[in-house]
Design goal:
With 171 residues, the protein is mainly alpha-helical. The longest helix is centred in the middle third of the chain and has 81 residues, at 60-140. It is 87% helix and 0% strand. The two termini are 34 Å apart. The protein is built from three helices and no strands.
Amino acid sequence: RRVLFRSDRKLEVANETLEKAKAEAALVEVELRRSEVEVEAIVDRRKKDEALLASGSIPPKEMEKIQHELGSLDRRQKELEEVELEVMERSDLAEAEITRQTSDLAGLETIKSELENRLGQLVAQLESEIEVKKNERQELAPKIPAELLDLYEKVREKNAGIGAVRLVGDT
């Protein structure tokens, strides 16, 4: 039963660890989505500016300003894409951790189930043996003098159910 209790505790810890891994993965996912949205905003801005340049309908001074902005957008997009790659790596690690924790949890649940089955078998076996011993006792009790049986029961009550023991040697 102690082993079963320890396996329950291990299952609790594994569940807590899995929940933490899932929470971390969710945070990373939010960060990834935010990064993707920022990159999309820059791409949309670039398309708009490039279309404006391609139209040729803007003054040269404005054209120079847009070209400068496109350079800034390129740099910012590269920075954000680097961040996005880092976040994707963290996301992959978080998902791998969830997979590992899920596998560990499944293994622990299997072990616990096996322990419970084995414990059930042992308890059934002990109950069967107890029943056999009770039947043997009922068969023998009438053959023992009443006063000796009464003394045995009194000793047994005082000694937590032990009324007689095998003597070995002089003790």
